[in-house]
Records
---
Amino acid sequence: ETGVTQSPTHLIKTRGQQVTLRCSSQSGHNTVSWYQQALGQGPQFIFQYYREEENGRGNFPPRFSGLQFPNYSSELNVNALELDDSALYLCASSLEQNTEAFFGQGTRLTVV
Amino acid sequence: AQSVTQLDSQVPVFEEAPVELRCNYSSSVSVYLFWYVQYPNQGLQLLLKYLSGSTLVKGINGFEAEFNKSQTSFHLRKPSVHISDTAEYFCAVSEDFGNEKLTFGTGTRLTIIP
């Protein structure tokens, strides 16, 4: 059983650009949640996908969007990047809704 | 809306000494409480969780926490720390059964002094 894997591990983008982050869920997990962790802060919930549908969203603007694919892997897309988007982005997958979530190691995004 | 306050941003402790990391929460409904650990350049690992039942919860690596509803607290304790416990610790709350859609505190950095 493989764990949650995220790619890339590090990324540098310029303000105004767009970025796509990827998450491969743990085997058999159909629920994926994304979190943003700014430096020195706790993670903040962005949104969750369950069986390819968005299932809850935190306080993030529409330029943060996501997808979940039939194999339950997921993408986080951020448009019009701002300097404050620099953070560690964490993906967590769970077997079903309302079960324990397992976190990946994250993608560190730096916006310059 | 729910929120979590971790009262100490940094806690230095001598090796083999006991430690308590404090966490208070606020919520208008019943909550589920969690402690996570984050080692440098790593994701989050679940230490323990309170969903219902006994207010004293035991987790991995010798940690335990006590849920106190009247004081809205969920403090994390370990009777004897080890160098390997050096990490960032996050308290989190969820209104969903399980640990999805978590609201995290700002974290406590635990430093173990040899």
---
Amino acid sequence: DGGITQSPKYLFRKEGQNVTLSCEQNLNHDAMYWYRQDPGQGLRLIYYSQIVNDFQKGDIAEGYSVSREKKESFPLTVTSAQKNPTAFYLCASSLPAGPFNEQFFGPGTRLTVL
Amino acid sequence: KNEVEQSPQNLTAQEGEFITINCSYSVGISALHWLQQHPGGGIVSLFMLSSGKKKHGRLIATINIQEKHSSLHITASHPRDSAVYICAVPWETSGSRLTFGEGTQLTVNP
């Protein structure tokens, strides 16, 4: 079955530690995205990548880093510089950039920083 | 002011009722996505529409490009329809980036 997987579903970390969230897709999509969701707010774009070895900052990139070494993988690192990292993180992918391309979402990772 | 606004923010209905969720946007190009987020957090795409109306089962989505407004309707609502419904609009400059509304929390009681 084609789809997007994110792991783990729940993640707990101590303040000051970096943590990496996994996102893998087998849909052969070129574009991948990371979003953050906070209660009462719409999804906000952290980073996106349209092709391998290339990525762009979204609206809230500070304190985050990404890599895109393989087409199917787009891991997100939440660094200690992110002031308020506790949130729900969603990864998505789509066909090449275009306004009419549906985005497919993973199940999400809920990160709690203690 | 949000670039994508949804109303209402919360909606409670009885099973069988006709539901309408609205979305207005001030940016973006001539297309709009409707998404559904279930309590577990997973999001699925319901519709992408650029004109007129689309129907899938009991769900109907309409869009008025000139007025920059879209509605999502649910006929014969059922408790399993309880979810957050989100509209999203592609940016003008890059179609792959979306601006999301805050979502409408729908609860359908039996």
